[in-house]
Amino acid sequence: MAITPDPLSIRVYDQQQQAAIDQLMQQCWPDDIDTIGYYRIGEQSELTLCAWHQEQLIGVGSLWNNRFHPQHCYIGIHVQPAYQQAAIDQLLYAQLIAQTSIIQGRTLQTATWSHAQQTLNFLHAQGFQIIKQTYLGEFSLLDIEIPQLEPAQDLTIASFEAYLSSNQPEPLLKLINSCYQATHSYNPATQTTSEAQTAFLTDIHAAASFVLYTADQLVGFNCIYHSTAAQTLEQGLIGVANGYSVQQAAIIRVLLQKTMQFAQHNGYQSLRYEIDSIDPWASELLTFLPIITQPCWLTLCLSHNPEF
């Protein structure tokens, strides 16, 4: 039976606690800036609660919103490793889910790594369900060969740079957005702002990203982004128009082949990827690229709707 340390106090975040929170997050996720960055704590959150044992911060929990995905309320709880058997997570969770004015009846969403077994056990005990797995990694572009399948009809392929030089961006943005929405049906994105619509083209590598089209219709696209790492590209959203789903495998291979050719001709050596298990187009990459699927990043949801 878990024993809660005494005395224990749970206090609302204030700025003076930020250094202690930063230290706690480093203890929970050592040298993992990307994971720490996912969780919004302190001024980035709607509410952050801190669990203190005497003058030591031993746990932190927060609720936050995502303006691009407003239908869910996000939650994160982190407990100092030495206190993970002390039910601190349960105490923080109970106070967070009582914040009905913030949650407003929305589905709760969180994420963690597949190897964070204690965290997963806690979330499953509260009723959270795994919605998707996200595979993150990097592989060498050297000597990669993509087995090609020929599309059933002649299609034109062009880089985003070339395509957008003579075409308006709206049709391409519409196709990209529709594919993105299809992969996020569990938590749809807002479409009310031009910012949300054009976010897909922010920081995109327009010369490494390609689009396939006929004389009167866009067929498929592959978004590739600049990376902070040298000689590296980052795989973004890839998608195929509804009317071409039968040719999906061939279209995706053609798009990737063009990106590989661009990379090899321009000195790029690696491709970073982030592939969701529920994404029908990105999942096609698993069939012909050296994608590592474990460990993976897990997205979990808890719905107030019994049909969820």
From TrEMBL:
Q: Which domain of life is it from?
A: Bacteria
| One Gene Ontology MF term | acyltransferase activity, transferring groups other than amino-acyl groups
Q: Which InterPro entries match?
A: Acyl_CoA_acyltransferase, GNAT_dom
Domain named N-acetyltransferase is located at 8-147
- This chain's protein is named N-acetyltransferase domain-containing protein
